[in-house]
Amino acid sequence: MDETGAAGPAAFDLAALVAARESERYSLHAGHLNEMMVRMLQTIGYDVGFREGRGQYLFDRDGARYLDCLSGWGVFGVGRNHPTLRAALRQVLDTDMANLVQMDVSVLAGLLAEKLLGNAPYLDKVFFANSGAEAVEAAVKFARSATGRPGILCCDHAFHGLTYGALSLNGDAIFRDGFGPLLPSCGTVPFDDLAALERALARRDVAAFIVEPIQGKGVHVPSDDYLREAAALCRRHGTLFVADEIQTGLGRTGRFLASEHWGVEPDMVLLAKALSGGHVPVGAVLARKGIFEKVFNRMDRAVVHGSTFAKNDLAMAAGLATLHVIEAEKLVENAARFGERLIAAFTAMRDRFELVKDVRGRGLMIGLEFGAPRSLKLRAAWSLLETVNAGLFCQLVTIPLFKEHKVVAQVAGHRSHVVKLLPSLVITDADCDWIERSFEAVIAESHRVPGAVWDLGRTLADHAMKARRAAG
């Protein structure tokens, strides 16, 4: 009540609202959002209702603890709900900052740009966006403006986002189909193929070559000389070399930028995902000064490209706090150390289990590739699944990992035979024990025919066939 005794407006109690409607989690989404997502979760048994996240762990509606090796597709590099991030965001809210004045500039944005460029001293300027896809869109515009050329080149199997410009650079047809026509003058070359890249650049109409230093779809690691020679080819042909570090950056691969593994200095570096700290989305384009000077070349073009919410104080504070945590907790070094341990453990599994064909990655970006076995019984079971749906076998790994061992992992792309791990950089030796023990058990079980894993395979194959018939 106010001073006169009259009833004031009812308080907004978010926690009470969530608690009251929690039981409707999946029906709300099926009714008002993406029903197919709900059906998929229910089919594979992932509808456990996660209610809490702390660091590298998730907790479901029953309080069971899971080790998250997906980390929001790499968003939670510093783990979920890090206290330093939470404190920084509270400070922004508690200090009544003059946020998004627009006809002014932000101190927090300047500080975050300064900090990012300190990790890439060969670059000079930063443009902030709201996401990785927006960073890609900005890079496309900047490259065309700076070079006067239309062409944008990417690699087969690339993933750079799902907005129209970024989608035009997507190397997987399942994401593109049904959405054309896409952005003109975009082309692809095979990843790790310098001869193909040189042929494409020789046309002298390519503004930028945008490449993931390690491809997220399938965790494809380039040959030792590829990125360095690709950058040299771009310089020779007047093309900008753009490193999409949206997933690989900020310590993920055991270096602050994955490009550092090969001594490459791109003309632009794209960041997002982990820079948010898992709280407020933020993307960034780090670029050479000459590129910015071509885009923002007069006062009347000072706002020729921008984004309304891009430099908001919460996002900038989240980025600053994230960089502080990465440095203070030595998370780059942590990723390198535990990545080396896990890759060695998985390599030993490859040598013992015929279904494991390859192990690759850097730091805590790791892919296990499965393939056709040699033994007769396993080969017959494998062929049956492949006939129904290529790549289905990987679900026989990720589902038992989830249900029986409480490990959240992902298949590394549509029709892929690769299971991918992107755990938070804060994992421990005990977490590595958990990962190794769980993968060992599931992979060993998958080599028993008949067995529980292949029973699951028949169930999934039946679901796939029914879905195919329903779709006509």
Protein model, in words:
The protein has 472 residues and is α/β, with parallel strands linked by helices. The protein folds into 2 domains: 83-328, Type I PLP-dependent aspartate aminotransferase-like (Major domain) (Aspartate Aminotransferase, domain 2, 3-Layer(aba) Sandwich), CATH 3.40.640.10; 331-465, Aspartate Aminotransferase, domain 1. It has 18 helices and 15 strands. It has helices spanning 14-21, 25-32, 35-44, 71-74, 83-94, 107-118, 132-147, 164-167, 173-176, 194-201, 226-236, 289-295, 313-328, 331-352, 376-388, 395-405, 429-446, 452-470, and strands at residues 52-54, 57-59, 65-68, 125-129, 151-155, 186-189, 206-211, 240-244, 268-271, 283-287, 356-362, 365-370, 407-408, 410-411, 418-421. The strands form 3 sheets. Strands 4-10-9-8-7-5-6 form a 7-stranded mixed beta sheet, with helices on both faces. It has a 4-stranded mixed beta sheet with strand order 1-2-3-13. Strands 11-12-15-14 form a 4-stranded antiparallel beta sheet, covered by helices on one side. Helix 6 packs parallel to helix 13 and helix 7 crosses helix 12 (289-295). The longest helix is centred in the C-terminal third of the chain and has 22 residues, at 331-352. The chain is globular, with a radius of gyration of 24 Å. 44% of the residues are buried. The model has no long low-confidence stretch (mean pLDDT 94).
